[in-house]
Design a protein that fits this description.
By secondary structure, the chain is mostly beta strands. The chain has one domain. Helix content is 4%, strand content 30%. It is built from 2 helices and 13 strands. Strands 1, 3, 4, 5, 9, 10, 11 and 12 form an 8-stranded antiparallel sheet that branches. A 3-stranded mixed sheet has the order 6-2-13, with no helix packed on it. Strand 10 and strand 11 form a beta hairpin.
């Protein structure tokens, strides 16, 4: 449960120039439950205590053909090992407590990403998001690869007025790159073997982060920046990227996914932008 959240929470707002979604995805390390501590600063990112593991490793081993001790080939993993793992019910809340509007989104005109926050495990390794235009291993086994549009969706920004909160449901899952054995793929896979397995996080210490700009840049002129109310909070403007000063807020928390809070309210991850 998240009863330790208050002691471990690290709310940080700082000036930090980044390119959204520019981190190269990495395969998370083995899961080892551990605790961590974090410092905070109103101007710069605080250093957090280290913790190992924090990510599920189901299905991370390569499929058949790997060499074991003495050069012997290890058996291929069962096809069931590539199935998607079930998710948790988590909520990420991003709040603007600054005096000015902040804009969540991307800094560059890249394809739109699936979530306005990032998650790192206890070793600060990025847990790659499950993007819409990805083929999961389960899909390759059951129905074939995902069909994606030739042109990706234009990026958008979410404007948060002072005091506004964006609520983002998250199932606690991330993508683990895999190579599906041909014997496991359906006929519809048509020779496709590269896939992503949806793996859920394990109980451990995680760092959540959100980036926002102090201004917004329209990609198609002023007409392309029309902001419409967003069902989860703030308003969304298609065809725009964040600009100005890029600020970052982080939150260090120990999670025990799948458990409900004692009060019966759903647990949430709190990210706050402050002056």
């Amino acid at each position: 449960m998240l009863s330790e959240r208050a002691a471990l929470a690290l709310f940080v707002a700082c000036a930090f120039h980044v390119t959204a979604c520019s981190d190269a995805p990495v395969t998370p390390p083995s899961s080892v439950a551990s605790a961590g501590t974090g410092g905070s600063s109103s101007e710069a990112l605080g250093s957090s205590g280290s913790a190992s593991g924090g990510a599920s490793t189901a299905g991370q081993s390569g499929a058949g053909g790997l060499s074991g001790a003495g050069g012997a080939a290890t058996p291929a993993m069962p096809c069931a090992s590539y199935m998607d793992e079930s998710g948790w019910a988590l909520l990420v809340q991003i709040k603007n407590e600054r005096q000015q509007v902040v804009y969540l989104g991307q800094k560059d005109a890249q394809c739109e990403t699936s979530r306005p926050f990032e998650v790192r495990d206890g070793t600060r390794a990025l847990l790659p998001a499950l993007e819409k235009c990805q083929s999961t291993c389960q899909q390759l086994m059951q129905s074939g690869p995902t069909t994606c549009a030739l042109a990706c969706a234009a990026p958008s920004t979410i404007a948060l007025q002072p005091g506004e909160t964006l609520k983002v449901p998250w199932d606690g899952r991330f993508g683990v790159p895999q190579t599906l054995p041909a014997t496991c793929a359906s006929a519809a896979a048509q020779g496709t073997s590269a896939c992503v397995q949806a793996a859920h996080i394990d109980a451990n210490v995680f760092t959540f982060a959100a980036h926002a700009g102090t201004a917004v840049q329209c990609l198609a002129g002023a007409a392309g920046c029309t902001c419409a109310p967003n069902a989860n909070g703030g308003c969304i403007a298609p065809g725009s990227v964040m600009s100005g000063t890029i600020i970052t807020t982080e939150y260090l928390v120990k999670l025990e996914p799948g458990e409900t809070s004692p009060s019966g309210e759903p647990p949430y991850i709190g990210l706050v932008f402050r002056d």
